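Researcher: Sequence recovery benchmark, item below. Answer with residues only.
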């Protein structure tokens, strides 16, 4: 899995918004707090708003707030909002790849990789990452 700058920035921005919840956070504060280029961040925030992960409010009290509780927003939700699927093959979605002959079974491998990544990122919420033991993986927290 290749984590793009866009995906990394989106998750980091969402963590800042979640940490300030229920207060709103401006794009300028997000950019400064996480050293994200402001112009790049604007596009990311638009994607997050369209995916119903954040609300945007204009005006003096404006900024961004979570559209639902941090416990109900998962890393996978954020990744899908800004990048689509988790894996791709030669720039194509793994679901759209077609192989022929001896290579035909390879598609199933890529789909399994996608499902495995989903099994991880769809279980880690923003709240989990903001918890006091966030430096520890969820598997280590239960041990």
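Model:
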């Amino acid at each position: 899995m290749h984590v793009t700058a866009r995906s990394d920035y989106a998750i980091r921005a969402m963590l800042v918004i979640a940490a300030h919840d229920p207060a709103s956070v401006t794009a300028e504060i997000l950019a400064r707090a996480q050293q994200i280029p402001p112009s790049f961040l604007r596009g990311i925030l638009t994607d997050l708003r369209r995916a119903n992960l954040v609300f945007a409010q204009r005006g003096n009290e404006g900024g961004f707030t979570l559209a639902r509780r941090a416990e109900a927003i998962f890393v996978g939700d954020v990744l899908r909002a800004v990048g689509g699927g988790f894996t791709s093959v030669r720039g194509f979605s793994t679901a759209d790849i077609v192989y022929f002959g001896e290579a035909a079974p390879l598609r199933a491998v890529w789909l399994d990789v996608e499902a495995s990544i989903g099994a991880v990122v769809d279980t880690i919420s923003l709240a989990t990452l903001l918890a006091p033991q966030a430096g520890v993986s969820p598997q280590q927290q239960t041990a």
